[in-house]
Amino acid sequence: MNQHVICIQDLSCFGKCSLTISLPVLSSAGLSVTPLPTALLSTHTGGLGKPHLLDLSDSMLEIRHHWQELKLPVSAVYSGYVSDVGQVAEISKFFDEYPKALHLVDPVLGDHGHLYASLHEELITEMRSLCKRADIVTPNMTEAYALLQEPYREGPYEKTEIYRLVKQLYEMTHAMVILSGVWLEEAYLGCAIYDAHKPPQIQVLKRLPYRFHGTGDLFAASFLGAYLHHKEAMDACVIAMRFTSACMEYSHQKHTDERYGLLFEPLLSYYIDLLEEE
User: Fold this and answer.
1) Rounded to the nearest 5°, which phi and psi values hold at 216?
2) 128 close to 146: Cβ distance less than 8 angstroms
3) Whole-model pTM?
4) Which of 214, 221, 248, 249 could lock 22 by a disulfide, CB 3.0 to 4.6 Å apart?
């Protein structure tokens, strides 16, 4: 039987992000994906005006009760953007429901040094608690400082600072830390990994000067797809970086509005090829 992933994120009707990215990417990795929307939005929250938002916390509860009856075989529970503390509580209950599954938390709080305006301190506090229940957390640099309750620091960064961040995030969560947006030199950007069994690792690629919405969602989903495809964590990170970078370049070549998200669909075959590489 294929591995089965429950993907708990918002559904933004316009502007590719969250479920509209994770569903096709994880499916192309050969995984069976069951979506669970945390909220329904007319658009994402990044530069397209104030969206209509429907909180689906109550529906998450009813869906969980129905799935309890079905006894779904679940390999991983993957959570992303949430807009209310009630949604965080429901995600925790899904972790309880599937204790043997891999629990991945993408703590979607902000980017480029700024937290999302729609988030309040209680929600950020609850996200810290949720990360402590994860097996893997995938923050970017902005989110790493927020989770550690430290002021954001602009890059480029020294390796010692990256190692400090991932070590302290591990000590806080006891989860494998996949830190994206690691900027060591002007021309290079990448990610760092820390877990209990290996020294911290850093990998970088050419830094691209684009800010497409949904890039972090694409990285996290393609990392998880590769990781569940039995790749080592750093190999999965490299696949996610290569795929995300290719999608950014392609989207730029097609003159895509950065607010609308990445044109990743035409490159899904490239992602599949990356998964098949030895």
Assistant:
1) -65, -35
2) no
3) 0.95
4) 221
Q: Phi and psi of 277, rounded to 5°?
A: -65, 145
Cβ atoms of residues 242 and 205 within 8 Å: yes
Low-confidence ranges of the chain (pLDDT < 70): 1
Q: Residue 158: which residues within 8 A CB-CB, separation 6 or more?
A: 184
Length of the chain: 278
In whole angstroms, give the CA distance from residue 102 to residue 74. 9
- pLDDT 10s digits, 1-57: 589 999 999 999 999 999 999 999 999 999 999 999 999 999 998 889 999 999 999
**Phi/psi class of residue 18: alpha, beta or left (left: φ > 0; alpha: ψ in -120 to 50)?**
left
Are the CB atoms for 166 and 179 separated by under 8 Å? yes
- Displacement of CA 156 from its chain's centroid (Å): 22
Q: Specify the amino acid at residue 143.
A: E
